[in-house]
Amino acid sequence: EMASLTTGTVNFGEEVFENPPPLIERLFRAMRARGIVPEFECFDAGHVDAAVRLTDRLDAPARYRHFDFVLGVPGGMRGTPEAVAFMAGLLPEGATWSATGIGRTHLPVTLAAIALGGHVRTGFEDTIYYRKGELATSNAQLIERVARLAEESGRGVATTAETRAMLGLKERGG
User: Fold this and answer.
1) Are 63 and 168 in contact (CB under 8 A)?
2) pLDDT tens digits, one per residue of 31-59
3) For FRET with 54, which of 4, 30, 38, 72 sits at 20 to 30 Å CA-CA?
4) Phi, then psi, of 152 in degrees rounded to 5
């Protein structure tokens, strides 16, 4: 029902994560034809602009405006609270967004996303440490921490139904 779609090329450490505009558009059109909602993965500010231009040009409905900021990748935008605020400020009105910080930037980005009204992506794909020098024991441990931080900040955790509604996904049959 959802799939990641990176909307630009980025140096990814020692590699190049190549996503030329014609490929991005082909993938977006294929996703839309199948009813798949993209999660626009944005490693840098230009990726937000590229996704907005694409959805505007193709007159995509509002549900096609979910962004995930992947910050702290060497070659992409820094994983700082300031970067989260900057990226969130680029979004069109009504867009939904989440953020994740890679490695040691994970917790500062998580806290900033919660404070700024965004959502959080977490798990071993983004960090393997629970805290400095301590490996996380599971994805569940990382998720429980984010849930606790959200609850303590007064944000709470969305239910599955609330999340599906927020992202414009159809309710699944029982």
Assistant:
1) yes
2) 999 989 999 999 999 999 999 999 999 99
3) 72
4) -65, -25
